[in-house]
Every structure is written in structure tokens, then in C-alpha cells.
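Hypothesis: this fold can be encoded by more than one sequence.
Test: take the C-alpha cells below, design a sequence, compare later.
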């Protein structure tokens, strides 16, 4: 599986990124992978590689590049301690709006690559990255055909860059996979988010998995293999239908 470490120039600095290309085809649709708050680490690389093996060019940018060097972090250790003290400074360097602006540079980089097929891309985000993927697709609406969010939190808040505020601009179809009993995405927030999607006539499917926030990540203490494999099946089927 071809894997290249690259650096992408953004308006705020140099963003390290990983680019995975499928073996089977020289030309393939592209998907931007928006990481969780645990940052770039072996599990993120493995998940991006798995997605690429399904037939996609996958770009995994380090959204904490403004912070500088860190980690790699071990989520089980971080979550067992004062995780806010560790993750808070990292998360403070980015936001939905900043990730959406960074996406300008990510798209420009992918546009230079001969292995990328077409101009309509996919996006997938986990936890923190779920909202970022939606914000990016709303900001660059003509460039995204499909967005998947897994256990994304804070999708409908009073913040100026809350993901639900991007609904009127969205052209992409959404798959929203929520966690059960998720304090970062309670039922009332899910209803608010879906009302915004309905009002904007966004095509979407939303469902709640009987699993905890973070269930898709093998290095999280709440990892649920059965639910994760179901998530992968849904994600790959969604991207196959929308991207080819």
C-alpha cells in the first residue's frame, strides 16, 4: 500500500499529512480523513490505510500542526488521567472553522495529484473530526459528494462555527453515526442537528449505535469490535454508492 508523508502549506503554517494510495488502481476518488482529538498515531494511520485499501486515495492531515510537535499519544493512558490537561492545549489550536479553512489547502494538494479521480471528494471524521468534516463540506460545498461522521460531538451548539450552521450550504450526502448515551451529542442536540439538515433539505441518514463514544477506535478503552465492523461496513457501502 503506497504511503507518503507530505507537508501541506496552509495559511497558518506547515501541516504534516499522510497520503495513502490504493494498489489496485492508479486513479481513485479521494477522501479526506479528519482525525479525533487523540491526534496522529498508529491507529489513525491503520484506519486511513484500511480505507485506502477499499479503493480510495486517503489524505490524513495533522490538524494539530499549529501546536507543534506532540506525542504520539496513547488514548488509554491519556483518558485514564487528566485528559483535559493533555488534550485541551492541542484542541485549542484548531476548530471547525479552522479545519474548514485548512481544507482549502488540502483540496489544492489533492488537485495536483494524478492518482486522484474527479473533483468531488469524500470526507470522514471521528469524534472532534466529525464536526470538522461537516464544516469543511459546507464551506467547500462544490467539492464534496459524501461525508461520514462517527461519534461526532457538539454537532449543534450555539457556537458560530457549529456544524449545524453549515447545513444550508451542504451539497454532500451525510451519514451520521452517533454513540449511545453520548454526553457530547445528547438526543436533544441530535434533534437540533437533524432539524437543521431537514430545513436545508440535506440528504442524510442518521443512526445511533449501541456503543460508547469512541467505539470505532481500536486504541480507545471503549472500542467495540462488533459495532466498529458494522461502522466500517456502513462507511464503505456509503462511499461506494456516493463516490464509486
Amino acid at each position: 500500500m503506497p504511503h507518503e508523508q507530505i507537508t501541506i502549506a496552509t495559511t497558518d503554517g506547515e501541516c504534516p499529512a499522510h497520503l495513502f494510495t490504493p494498489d489496485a488502481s492508479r486513479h481513485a476518488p479521494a477522501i479526506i480523513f479528519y482525525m479525533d482529538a487523540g491526534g496522529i498515531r498508529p491507529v489513525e494511520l491503520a484506519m486511513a490505510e484500511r480505507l485506502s485499501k477499499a479503493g480510495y486515495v486517503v489524505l490524513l492531515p495533522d490538524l494539530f500542526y499549529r501546536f507543534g510537535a506532540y506525542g504520539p499519544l496513547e488514548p488509554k493512558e491519556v483518558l485514564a488521567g487528566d485528559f483535559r490537561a493533555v488534550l485541551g492545549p492541542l484542541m485549542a489550536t484548531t476548530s471547525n472553522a479552522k479545519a474548514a479553512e485548512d481544507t482549502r489547502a488540502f483540496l489544492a494538494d489533492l488537485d495536483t495529484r494524478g492518482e486522484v479521480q474527479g473533483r468531488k471528494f469524500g470526507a470522514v471524521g471521528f469524534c472532534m473530526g466529525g464536526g470538522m468534516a461537516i464544516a469543511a463540506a459546507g464551506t467547500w460545498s462544490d467539492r464534496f459528494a459524501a461525508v461520514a461522521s462517527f461519534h461526532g460531538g457538539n454537532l449543534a451548539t450555539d457556537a458560530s462555527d457549529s456544524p449545524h450552521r453549515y447545513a444550508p450550504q451542504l451539497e454532500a450526502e451525510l451519514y451520521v453515526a452517533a454513540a449511545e448515551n453520548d454526553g457530547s451529542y445528547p438526543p436533544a442536540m441530535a434533534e437540533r442537528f437533524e432539524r437543521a439538515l431537514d430545513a436545508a433539505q440535506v440528504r442524510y441518514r442518521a443512526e445511533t449505535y449501541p456503543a460508547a463514544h469512541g467505539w470505532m477506535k481500536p486504541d480507545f478503552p471503549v472500542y467495540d469490535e462488533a459495532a466498529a465492523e458494522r461502522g466500517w461496513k456502513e462507511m464503505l457501502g456509503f462511499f461506494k454508492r456516493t463516490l464509486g
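Residues 5 and 18 are 5 Å apart (CA to CA). DSSP finds seven helices and eight strands in the chain.
Hypothesis status: open.
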